[in-house]
Each structure stands twice: as structure tokens, then as C-alpha cells.
């Protein structure tokens, strides 16, 4: 019975350590520096270059009388 009690205590301590490690990882992932880096990555990925119209003066050509 004493062995079972010690085993249960050790199992509880292991679970507590796992929970603490998980919380530390979550906090590290949401640190201000990580947030800034994610924002920079997203903004860099969303920048696009507008290529414009492939036909030059297409609007002028369409609007000019035949």
C-alpha cells in the first residue's frame, strides 16, 4: 500500500511537471518578440507588387471612335 501511495505521488508530480512545461512553452510562443516576428512575417508575405495592365493605353483604345 505504501508503494502504491508513493507511485501515485510520483505520477502526480510528473503530471504537474508536464503541465508546467506546457505552460512555459505556450508563454514562450506568445512572448512579445515572437508576436513581433509573426507580425513581420505576415506583413512581408502579404506585400505584393501590382503588375498593372498588360496592354498599353487599352482604355484610350476602347474609348476612341472607330
Write the layout of secondary structure elements.
Layout: H1 2-29, H2 32-46, H3 58-63
Key descriptive features of the protein:
66 residues, mainly alpha
Helix count?
Answer: 3
Shape: rod-shaped
Estimated helix fraction = over 70%
Number of extended strands: 0
Quaternary state of the chains = single chain
Proportion of β residues? under 5%
Main sheet makeup: none
Q: Mean pLDDT score, rounded? A: 85
| Secondary-structure element order, N to C | HHH
Structural class: mainly alpha
Alpha carbon gyration radius: 31 Å
Residue windows where pLDDT falls under 50 for at least 5 positions: none
**Gap from first CA to last CA:** 101 Å
Description:
By secondary structure, this protein is mainly α. The chain has a domain at 1-43. Helix content is 74%, strand content 0%. It has three helices and no strands. It has helices at 2-29, 32-46, 58-63. The protein is rod-shaped, with a radius of gyration of 31 Å.
Q: What's this entry about, in short?
A:
By secondary structure, this protein is mainly α.
Amino acid at each position: 500500500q505504501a508503494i502504491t501511495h508513493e507511485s501515485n505521488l510520483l505520477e502526480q508530480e510528473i503530471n504537474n511537471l508536464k503541465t508546467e512545461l506546457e505552460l512555459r512553452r505556450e508563454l514562450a510562443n506568445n512572448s512579445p518578440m515572437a508576436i513581433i516576428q509573426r507580425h513581420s512575417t505576415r506583413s512581408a508575405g502579404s506585400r505584393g507588387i501590382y503588375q498593372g495592365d498588360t496592354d498599353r493605353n487599352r482604355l484610350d483604345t476602347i474609348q476612341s471612335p472607330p
